[in-house]
Amino acid sequence: MKKRFLIVCIIMILSFSGCDDLHFTEGNRGGFTGPNANITTVAQALNLPDDTPVIMQGRITKFLGNERYTFTDSTGSITVEIERRVWGSLTVGPDDLVEIFGEIDRDRNRIEVEVDRIRKL
């Protein structure tokens, strides 16, 4: 009986280990990227709660210092934090359209997006 229970537990653990798409993850998974693919605008992002995952499309228009930049789309601007490791070898100018993947970081006096991944469009 104990062996059967142990085997069932191992099978369940192994079957659930591949279920990481139940939450927001960054990675190189495929998926739909066309219109209405859960793109968040700056105007929407400014009203989202802390730690909300977002995908945004726009331009990085200004370096603010300390890994912070101004990100702009047709609805407004927001500060984004992009660490060096996230940039990798990607270079982006103010005329380049980019897509950023990250989450809302809200404190009492500020709101910004912590970027986990960025790519040129």
Task: Compile the SSE list and pairings.
Blueprint: H1 2-16, H2 42-45, E1 53-65, E2 68-73, E3 76-81, H3 84-87, E4 98-106, E5 111-120
Parallel strand pairs: 3-5
Antiparallel strand pairs: 1-2, 1-4, 2-3, 4-5
Low-confidence region ranges: 19-27
Order of strands in the sheet with the most strands?
Answer: 1-2-3-5-4
Assess the beta-strand content as a share of residues.
35-45%
Average pLDDT works out at 82
Alpha carbon gyration radius? 19 Å
How many strands? Answer: 5
Query: What's the N-to-C terminus distance?
Result: 57 Å
Helix content: 10-25%
Number of helices: 3
Describe the structure concisely.
This protein is an alpha+beta fold and 121 residues long.
Give an overview of the whole structure.
The protein is 19% helix and 36% strand. With 121 residues, the chain is α+β, with helices and mostly antiparallel strands. It has a five-stranded mixed β-barrel with strand order 1-2-3-5-4.
